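Suppose a colleague, Dr. K., hands you the sequence of a protein chain of 347 amino acids and asks what its three-dimensional shape might be. Before reaching for any lab equipment, you can write down a predicted structure in token form. Begin with the sequence itself:
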Amino acid sequence: MPSGSSPVESDPKAEARAAAARERNRQEREASILNGLDDLDAWISDQVDRGLAGFAAQSTQVCRQIAQRMVDGKASGMATRLESLPARLFSLPESARPVAALEELGLVHLLAEAYRRQEALPVELKADVRQAVGWSVTRETLLADASATRVRGAWRVIAALSEVQPDRLRRLETWLWLEKLPDGFEHAPRFAVLIDFVPVATGAASGGYRVGDRIEAELVFYPSAMPLRAQIRQSLSGAQASDAPLDLPEHSLEDAYKLYERALCIRPWLGVWPFAIRDARIRRHESQLFLCGGETAKAVALPLQPAQFANASPLLTIEKLDAVGLWDGYRFNLCWAQTQLGLWVNA
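The predicted structure, expressed as tokens, is then:
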């Protein structure tokens, strides 16, 4: 400390005023969000009254309007969900869009109701609801949270995704698989996703990792009833390229789908959910590829993303494969497949 200087003393009155201002701002935002959700309820009722058969055709305009109302109400998460709804609908066959629109609007309504009743929810589910509506947890707050789940180990990159959002931010997702559960952490998450947002103008199109990279790191998971999103608290080594196979659990596609349904019961607005699968296969029906499980009447078959048709078609010749991928409730994004002929990754 320089000679003659003295430590800066805290001012209790100033700290109290700052805390009071933060609480006032929080209460104002809570009220603004609730008012916005009331408008959202009225909007959903209007769409249902008009009929959802033609909703998709006009969804771009009507969703943009209500999304702007959510922005004004400081419910940014809800705004993003609504503004991206038309793209999700148009990615489906035309015949499936009315039912999908009903499901999506139902989930938006459920989120709004959950937000109104958040004080009655378990702590982790309340955190999910608030984050989905628009409240964010800063990296500093997360890392300082002593109760947050922390998992240290070797993680493999199984998918690196990039998507431009309607707000002109690029969403970068890096999906990770924990190679081995640490001792005493039998129920720790095996999957994690790192999410970053960058302006489209920067030109950045990836999160800096490639599929197959191996990372020794400690991850901290955001509070959630079904933890997935995480931050790297400490990197223990740099990313190292690897094509070694993953040691996946003995889950059939049917087993993995049951785990998805269980997660959906806990968090109905789940969105994308990761699958780890053994002994699956790829089959084709006309111009659609499917990831298929067993041969029984209860066997599960999930349609692959149409954009994967050309890249995944060579897997039709493979009798069995072990796979990792992402299911959004409509289409399966096959990210990683281990076969007797070698490793396949989504290019």
